[in-house]
Amino acid sequence: MTNLEIAELLRKVAAAYLVLNENRFRIIAYERAADSVEHLTSEVKDMWDDGKLEDIPGVGGGIASQLNELFRTGKSKHWNEVLSQVPQAIFPLLLVPGLGPKKAYTLVTELKLKDANTVIPDLEKAAKAGKIAPMEGFGDKSQSVILDSIAIYKRGQIKENRMPLPYADEIARELIAHLKKVPGVIRVDALGSLRRQVSTIGDIDIAVATDKPEPVISQFVKFSHQKIVDQGGSGATLLLSNGRQADLRVQSQKAYGAMLQYFTGSKNHNIRLRELALTKGMSLSEHGIKSVRTGKLTKYATEEAFYKAIGLSYISPELREDRGEIEASRNGTLPKPIMLDDMKGDLHVHSSYDLEPSHDLGKNSVAELMTKASDLGYAYLGFSDHNPGITNHSKEKIIDIMKRRREKYEQLYTSWKNSVQKRTRLAEDSKSRRAQYFLMCEVDILPDGKLALPDEALEYVDAVIVSVHSSFTQPKAQTTERLVRALTSHPKVRILGHPTGRLLGSREGIDADWKEVFTVAKAHDIALEINAYPERLDLPDTLVYDAVKMGIRLCIDTDAHAVEHMDLMRYGISVARRGWASAHDIVNTLEYNEFYKWLARKS
DNA sequence: GCCGTTTTCGGCCCGACTGTTTTCAGTCG
């Protein structure tokens, strides 16, 4: 069962409990657990394997024991029993915007809609026949709203899948530019999961600081949309033309710090924070902090002041996931998250040099990539082209290709260096801005764990990145053994590339015992890659968190296949920050000499 | 059902908006 399926099941149980008028805190507990599971980046099943279900925020003994039964036997008797007490037809209706468990229940019972498979068209028919308006608690307006919502639902225009972070960035940029045109706008920020830099984004959340809300809100609802979901004096919600939802909140500049904090979330972080504040007699909201005793509201212009008022040091948005950051802030043990400026090199770029690989070549030349590395202020660049294909080359041929490659790269680098020197002969700092290179190779880990490059060929590289590019669905034990074998196969193996092999939205990662793989990586001083390529963002942040806790080295690479991809480093930084990584956890923050020592195992 | 620097019992985040209502329930984030 995937996390999404588990979250859906927990939500169904919560909905059933709501219909059954069960204790409201039990319902909230299920919803909180569902949220938590949905946003988890490691698989619940893996956590069950490790006996760590109760490490999931919001999952305690009760839910954990049902999950245990679910994984063991394929079902939970207790949850099935709960679900069977309500009409099954209510569940599809929950996907229609504006319909929750109570309304859905009233509709299916009063209108006698029994078939879960046809309940949505059946409800549409009833609405068109005017049968909803006379019902108690409904009216003409709600009848037509239901019809509109069903129409949107049927067009399939509500995107349920989350999108990779960079795509959401693009939409947010357009929205921000649109809002900045309004006079009186002091600040516009993308908040929510975007500001927390989560790898995949559902809705786009935007906040505006202004003393004149009305023109901002009316400009917002002019942005290309298919529906205004709601609109009020402090914000609005749109269903955009592309099927994504966008939320706007406006706040005065004086109280903007509280708004930033509230609207950045995560939800569970905010709940935890508000619970803590209550113990100190403070009630938190997007308007500021209210004294429970006197009811007096204090406003905060900055988040730093807001956190300070609760007795906490500032917590970076990427850390706000209820993973212990509030306690760490209190104890002064928060990490100092890595920054883009800390990076001294990129170890995983593909050039257009053709070594007859089994996978794709890069688009740009060695010179173009070196120039880009220098422009980015890097001290070094690692060329990690894919190994030559093994099905169409003999072993001797592969060794020959790798040998010639070494010679050719040396020529290409020297001629680039000379041309740079010629152009900048007069510039004082020209030498310090010239990046150096490492000749590496990205070597396939074959299904049995052997490397797709003979040992003799490894003589012609400084180091290799090993990566899985095939057989993604092997059983867990086999995959684990495969990775361990690859990591321990040769001293020049220094980096495990995009470790899980996931592709966001299209491919699950491989299933491995990560704790065991990490233990081997640590013992052999092999760095785990955080691949910044937008569809990868791999290692996932939760595994980064585990790796950092274990004291394993990481490296952040772009896997660039073109010069412009080298700008994507910042997304890898986001993943690292979300995993509580500091500069000292990341091997390619080392200066050239130190890094060279690490790469060549001379330290 | 979860959870703990006042607690293993007794609390449980906070507010906006909408529609159908004369004070509130439902839904959402």
Keywords summarizing the entry:
Beta Polymerase, domain 2, DNA polymerase, domain 1, 603 residues, seven-stranded parallel sheet, globular, five-stranded mixed sheet, alpha/beta, DNA-binding, Beta Polymerase, domain 3
User: For the record, what is the CATH homologous superfamily label of the largest domain?
Assistant: Metal-dependent hydrolases
Based on the structure given, which CATH architecture of the largest domain is correct? Alpha-Beta Barrel
**Helical percentage:** 40-55%
Number of helices: 23
Strand order within the widest beta sheet: 11-12-13-14-15-16-17
Describe the structure.
- By secondary structure, the chain is an alpha/beta fold.
- The chain folds into 4 domains: 3-154, DNA polymerase, domain 1 (Orthogonal Bundle); 163-251, 2-Layer Sandwich (Beta Polymerase, domain 2), CATH 3.30.460.10; 262-331, DNA polymerase, thumb domain (Beta Polymerase, domain 3); 340-599, TIM Barrel, CATH 3.20.20.
- The protein is built from 23 helices and 17 strands.
- The strands form 4 sheets. A 7-stranded parallel β-sheet has the order 11-12-13-14-15-16-17, with helices on one face.
- Helix 1 packs antiparallel against helix 2 (24-39), helix 17 crosses helix 18 and helix 21 packs across helix 22.
- The mean pLDDT is 93.
- The structure holds one DNA strand of 29 nucleotides.
Question: What is the gist of this entry?
Answer:
With 603 residues, the chain is an alpha/beta fold.
